[in-house]
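Regression check, iron/sulfur cluster case 414:
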Amino acid sequence: MASERSVNVGGVQIGGGAPVVVQTMTKTETANLAATMDQIRKVAEAGADIVRVAVPRDKDIEALKTIVVESPIPVIADIHFNHTLALKAIDVGAHCIRLNPGNIGGPEKVAEVADRARAAGTPMRIGVNSGSLPKHLHELERENPVEALVTAAVEFVGLMERLQFTDFKVSIKSTNVPYTIAANRLLSDRIPYPLHLGITEAGTKWSGSLKSAVGLGTLLADGIGDTIRISLSTFHAEEEVKVAWEILKALKLREKGPVLIACPTCGRLQFDMDTVVADIERRLEAYEDPIEVAVLGCAVNGIGEASHADFGITGAKNEGLIFSRGKPLKKVPQERLVDELFLEIDKYAKTKRIDVDAGEQAEGAEWLQRIEEENAGELTPERLAKLEAEKARADADAIDEALSPVAGRRFTRA
Ligand code: SF4
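Current build output:
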């Protein structure tokens, strides 16, 4: 369940029903101020709400002094093993401190950091990682790794509460997707604090994105998780931000920029969809409006399942169609499809209106009808799916009919 409590990281609320916050971590040496600031600006532009920087040395604290002032988004200092660095990071104005109470040198040192953070009004993220559980939980970890992770997190929460410091969020991280899901489900039932979700060392852009989408997506769909970080093996932290946004957009948890939908293609494909879709996806990154843009590889099905899209294209051999919200906008030569699509999107971006020319619309509608008629007998993937859905519905209705206690009465199926 969603967290009851919240923390405020430099003006960004995390938890307590706030929208899920996107964060990432810089991959530069923090002490390299120019490179770190450059990356922070890039991730902020990509949509990161907050950013974390590693602070393993004193020279990183020096850079942090400037970073917290110049960063366009709040900055979390990531500290391991050295509580003095945590104290210094609080002193120079970090908006949040991330530390693992298990590796900072004992409860006294955690208490010292908590006192300093309380005095400064600095929240913390306390976290446990599957690779670094306290010794007394190692046996439990062998028997029940999920319970061991949750127990470690609950013990750290207990420690912070005894220190009368409750301005924190909690993370449980594992490289194992099922463990991450199970542990966060249990933890969300046991503590009221906001949860940070992530899959540790998820992998490359491809595999890491998938693992994160499965692990984090499952939890987020259940309402668990208040902030997310996608960990990818890439130097380009903005890629992590883009993946995080795709997950949130797919779950309709947040809106940001256009959503692209595209048919999977099949043997009826009429143009170089791979290149066209990649080109459209790249060009859409420049737009703010949360419009839906559809790309259909052929017009055999008409506009079909993309009829709700704000804008879309579909093609035949030499010509294609720009459509909008279920209606043709205009027929264009195949090679102009993408550029004409973006002319329409540009117009919308400026006026927030979709202009329809009745003559062009009629011409497009006629073209579409001709293509549909020419291919009326084709069993396309979309038509097969529609037939299957109709069959499933008919079967379900028949079962309802048979089970109905009153002869002839039918249950209404939503
Ligand atoms: S039939 Fe469907 S899947 Fe195949 S190219 Fe046309 S729109 Fe795409």
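Comparison notes: Residues 263-266, 268-269, 296-298, 300-301, 380-382 surround iron/sulfur cluster (CB under 6 Å). The chain has a mean pLDDT of 92. No diff flagged against the previous build.
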